[in-house]
Design brief:
mainly alpha
Length: about 230
């Protein structure tokens, strides 16, 4: 697992999340036919080969496929490849920036939408939630192909909902703060929408208390700074 660390689902915004899932389903249309034809059990080899080739587009297609089948077949069949493909994506992106700089890695179109859809579809699975947030944080503010065409479909409220759902999970709070930072720095429009989320400041303040690793409490300040908030 790339990170060093009884989920309850808050359904108060369930209708909005359902609408977001429907909007994100449009990203399935261009999935690789080879990937769509593979069973859940057969995904391991595809994931391994894609990671070895640093093929983030193929990894995103696998992530999207797992999301697509989440409610169409037995869910337990797809949770393992979903987490594995997200783990691989995380390692590839972090590896490309191992020196801490912006590697110039170009993110394929719908990168953030596919990662957020995975977060949405698997929000009841704590391990997948953690790594999906980590992936969103890992891409940070890196440029995404044709981002202006897909940015309107990104549901920033979902991350706050996840923070409230997993309020006792310190690592999820950390990764959520870093994801908020990355989204705010990626787009002025996303930054504005994040600031419009009711209780954003209060949620970040709460996250500081929820994060148990003293060194990582700084992630709250980084998120707040990206949003221009003074906590």
């Amino acid at each position: 697992h790339p990170f060093d660390s009884s989920s309850r689902i808050d359904n108060k915004d369930g209708s909005h999340l359902a609408e977001t899932a429907n909007a994100m389903s449009a990203t399935d249309e261009k999935m690789d036919d080879q990937i769509k034809s593979v069973t859940a059990d057969g995904m391991e080899d595809l994931i391994e080969s894609a990671e070895k080739a640093s093929d983030i587009k193929k990894l995103l297609d696998i992530i999207s496929t797992c999301s697509h089948y989440r409610h169409q077949e037995s869910p337990e069949d797809w949770d393992v490849p979903s987490e594995a493909s997200l783990d691989s994506f995380y390692r590839v992106v972090k590896g490309s920036r191992s020196d801490g700089s912006d590697s110039g890695l170009e993110l394929p179109m719908n990168t953030r939408s596919k990662l957020l859809r995975s977060l949405q579809e698997w929000r009841e699975e704590e391990a997948i939630v953690e790594v999906a947030l980590g992936c969103i944080a890992a891409v940070g503010s890196q440029a995404e192909e044709n981002f202006d065409e897909t940015v309107d479909g990104i549901d920033v409220k979902l991350i706050v909902n996840i923070m409230q759902t997993y309020e006792d999970e310190s690592t999820i709070q950390e990764q959520a703060c870093l994801a908020i930072k990355g989204l705010a720095e990626a787009s002025e429009g996303l930054k504005a929408r994040l600031l419009e989320v009711e209780g954003m400041g209060e949620e970040l303040k709460a996250a500081k208390d929820r994060i148990t690793n003293e060194r990582n409490k700084k992630y709250v300040g980084q998120a707040a700074a990206a949003l221009g908030l003074d906590l």
